Amino acid sequence: MVSGIPPPDLVALTVTSADIVTHFVDADSLLGGGVGVPEAAGRRVAGAPPALLSENGGVEAYDLDVDQLLGASYDASEPVRLPNWVETDDVPELSDGSSSGGYASDGGGGNTDGEEDEGGDGAAMDDEASSIDAGDDAQRNPGFQRPGDGRTRGSGLNVRESMQDIFVILLCRQMEAALALRTARDSASEQLLDTCIASVRALRLRYKRITDSVLATKAWTLRRSGSVGAVFKFKNKGARDNQARDSNLAVEVFLSDDDSPLVCCSRGEENCLEDGCAQRDVILRALDELTAATGMDVPGVLALLSEDLRVSALNQGIAVLYGPNICVVRREGGSWPFAVVRRKPRDGVWMCHACAQGPGTCTHAYAAKEADGNEQSEASDDDDLINNLGRGRQPRRSNTVYSTSPRPLVPSARSLAGHADVVRASVTGDTIILPAPSTCKSCGFERSGRYAVFSRFGVVEFGQGAVATRVQSWWCARCREFCVTDGLEQGLVMCSQFTAYTEFFLFECTINLCRNASSLTATYDLRSAFHELMREHAYPLTLTKLRSLPLFRFAALLYIYLVLDELPLAVSTCAVCTRADGSLQFICFDGLQVGFKVRYQTPFTTISVKLCPINRASIQALLVSDTAVGRALGSVLSSATSRHETAAGPIKTVTAMRGHMIALAVLAGDVEVAGQATNLAGETPHAENASRSRGWDPIVDGGVHESLLLFFRELFRGGRAARKLARTILNAPDTLLAKVPAVLMDRVKAVDGAGDADAGTDTESSADGSSSDGGRGGGSDDQPVRPARRRHLAAYSRVVADPILADAGGVAGEERRGDALLRPLPNIVATAGSAERLVDFARAVVIDPVVVWAPAGDWTAVGVVVEALRAEPFSRAGLQAAVRHVAVKELRLLHGAVVTLYPSLCTQPRVRVVLLNVLLAMCVTDRRYQDFVDKHAAAEIPRDERGNLVMATREQMAAAPAGAMFHPKEFEAAYPECGSTWEKFSAAYGERAMTMLDYLVSGQWAPSFPPVRALPDFLAVQSSTEDHPECSHIMGTANRFTGGTFAASCTCTHPKTIGVVVLQGSESQRMPIEFVVQRMPRFPDRIFYDFACACLKMALCRLPYIALFLAMLVDRFHWLKNHIWCSKAMNPDSYKSMDAQNTSASEERNAASRRLQNFLRLVKQRNFILFTVYQQAVGNVIAMHRDAKDKRGSTVTDDWPLWYRKNFVDNAATSMDADATSEEDADGNDAAGEADADGGATMGEEVADGGATMGEEVADGAATMGEDVVDGAATMREDVADGADATREEVTDGAVATGEEELENEADAADATGDAVGSASDAGNLDA
């Protein structure tokens, strides 16, 4: 055809004018309706485009029909029949030329021979033309003749209409997860549990048309909001639809007081409790379906669904994200439990459904915005692989593959051999073959022949490179998971179905992290750089690229998790410090606040009992009940010698002013009013009640014991100390001075203007003196004898076996004694050193509670001295025996006071009476404290009909509601020191107790000391201000980086960490009490803590038993640093038995952790726990190795990794294999799937340092009390014998065995794919 001339079929009219030929083209033919399309009775073919041009007979032109163009007469009642390739989505291939067979029918212009392409549009039009009724002569309108079938928009799920079905599915998923957390104790329980799970799954299959992928963005359970219910998203945009119904709705179901189900929703216009919820019928019908399937009643179903709720989200104002654009905020409860907030997709503004007048500025919108900005929100945790470890929330179907079998802290010999195989493969270029397991590690399903094994290529990385692997796997039809080798046999840690790391390489990286503070990012960067530099020279056949940093970080975290899961109990205790019953005599505590940010924290699971405080109980244990008076006296009870004229700190309160005035009265005596001695006493004694009309008397208003007045006035010269108090009072503001009575102010001014009343030097002899023979001579003990000079105190020094009386200190000592602020009277013969001991004793008596004189409740020392002083007749030999008594020498403060006063006690009966009264006052005050506690308990604890106190049992405490509060006496009776065991605790709390063993869930790691009591909750009610500590330790304020750990350790030469508690805020003085009470079956004798003075005060008003029978001391490091107001009674050097104790052991252990603070501050909470606990475990192993080397006769020469592997890894593995082999010989057949014992596990007893038994596990296959619960993780170990299912046994460390050859007996002969690491040359697939 000539170019430029249209085909003849298209030309309707040809006109020649002025030698110009004009062709008029038929519109129908041009647009496809006239070429190759037959007509029926002159009509248009159905579906042909409209005739856009209409002929105008008047002129030679064509006008455009507007109605036809705009579609006014376009009939869309019958659609055009589309080509087959449009309906079947089978698009024909187009050639590169201008003519295309697929488009040849469109006008025929592309087909030069005039033939239509078979199957093109022409055939479709022929079919359509032939289908038109030939007898119908009516003109059809152009366009679509009928509506098409269309398609469903989106998923096609109408959430509002399918609300009941969706809620059934959500309940089934939550019920199955709750049942999966339960552990059957016998075969009947296991069968019942399996039946219930199968029924729930069958109910879910009834609604299989609604897939989980569809519901992922349309409905969620309210488990993370702490309720049983669901969130429904009905539409994507807008707050309401055209019927004023909410686009998003949260529905909650709960039980009423009569156990009937109630339903409340988030819709603000509905008063659900009063009028009933509009969604009640839908929700209850769904709940009835679940109860019918499980055979349970509604309360039972709701109770089971409530076990896995996030209880911390029940607080008002807590916002939880559901998907990227929905947030549920907890409200005040009742008819409106939640407020649903949605995010506008375009600008990201959060809009609240519940607040119509201010949807973008209400508190709910701000809470949603804050939750959205939290990088560790609940919404972001779903994408984190490590989140599922130990959490029990695995997805229903997951292709994520990683190792689950525990690993030893130091790789075994088999793991090292596997690492060597990988290194050799990198040299030879071979491919490592990882065979598929014969059984599914998740559900135990055994693969049969009809489940094919397929392989894919992967990578195994080691320190200097990576090699290719062929990973064999199969798909489990029961649990719908990939079954890939765990890597334990090959010494690998699987991170995915494609990637693995050698165990030895991860051991190197993690040890370098916790010992040298080298972060994982720095390790990865250096390794990548060195690999790129040395690959061609060292391992030229390794892969060129390494896997990503996130995968390497996940591998390291997974390895740490697996190591901690199988850690022997010997690593978490101390063989040197442990007593015969497994308890510790001394424990040291310390906090380390360098951890994660507060906003990244998630609440931990704990079992606690709220205890009501015993207000003002701590002052009942003081000889000076008014702490302001004790503080004022303590400011002058010092051996300081520098510038006594200088006033102390300024007085700022009326309480402090009264305290200084009463302290001045103690030292300076009474005032005279109308010829009578008085101090203007108030009406009520201070120790009995805090009266508003208080006076200024030391005994009545200051709570000073009468014996102390005589003690200070008859043994000390108080002129300098009284003058310092007077100057401090006069420096107070005038407003405070105006509140002091005039007569008392006159006394203050008189004391200040009297000058130094203690000026002058002592005479060579004392007033009463003593015999020069040190009290050993004859004669009556009470007969006055010739005065003795101070230099003759050396004789007394030999009698009491203490050099302090013989050491006068020369000229410097005499000057120091003469310049002291508080000195004994001239009749009390003392040297400078002995006088300081007497002042230290006086300060401890005034400031600290009397329980410090009876460590662990033992009043033997005080009793021995009392008996010697009150003996009739008095005997010097008896007093000498008391001074030499072991209990008296243990309390160095008491011993020092008695030694100082020994010359005077032997010769002056009045001094004996004064000291005796003070010691008896201690005993009386201790009884007063106990009576006060008993009286408070009698007033608070309920009584029965007969008037007897009804003490709550531990079972009643376990079943009590969350807000129930108990008296400390009830707690002590329910959880006595003797008889509290893990078995009794778990029997009372059930599965809640088992969760406490998971350190990721509870935030506490102490495997050797499982919980034996509920945690005493001291935050229930604010205590009295009089019970607050005096010393300041910068505690109680949570700042940006207060997240950290609180560690407990032993006190030997090489201390070990026995427990780690993750802080959720600032450190508190209650934490040592909580740890000891919760985890120690037998309390230690003493604990060391840097804030022990405040810890003791808290125990006095919170747990009296702990205060009476547990001694608390400050460690030496902090005692010298920041303890001002407590006395030397809190100093460990004041007790003889503490000389060899390492009181700063926890400080030493935390010093290593502080090196990690640079990257620990910014990691997530669970990663922080893994890093911290792993570091402490490694430090414990190194300390154990040092103990083994220091042991007498030790032959240990290996470094700690090899020593640990020989004693706790390979020996244990060989012992396991020997037991398995003997069992196989007895049965006559092989045991299928014998579990690896690699990792330090044994079947018998724990052995530390070559044979020291640390404890014995429960026999007969029972689970041990130290068993770690890891929710959601696959079963760590199975022992299969005689073809039966395995019974999981708890294993511990250290049983001695020999040999490694029998490891090969674990091969499964039935496994078609093999069970050993094989290598095959596959160079052609290395690139894959």
UniProtKB/TrEMBL annotation:
UniProt biased composition (Basic and acidic residues): 1276-1291
Span list, region Disordered: 81-157, 373-404, 754-786, 1217-1247, 1274-1328
Amino acid composition bias (Acidic residues), ranges on this chain: 113-136, 373-385, 1220-1237, 1299-1309
Positions with biased composition (Low complexity): 754-771, 1310-1328
Protein name, per record: HMG domain-containing protein
Organism name: Porphyra umbilicalis (Purple laver)
Taxonomic lineage: Eukaryota, Rhodophyta, Bangiophyceae, Bangiales, Bangiaceae
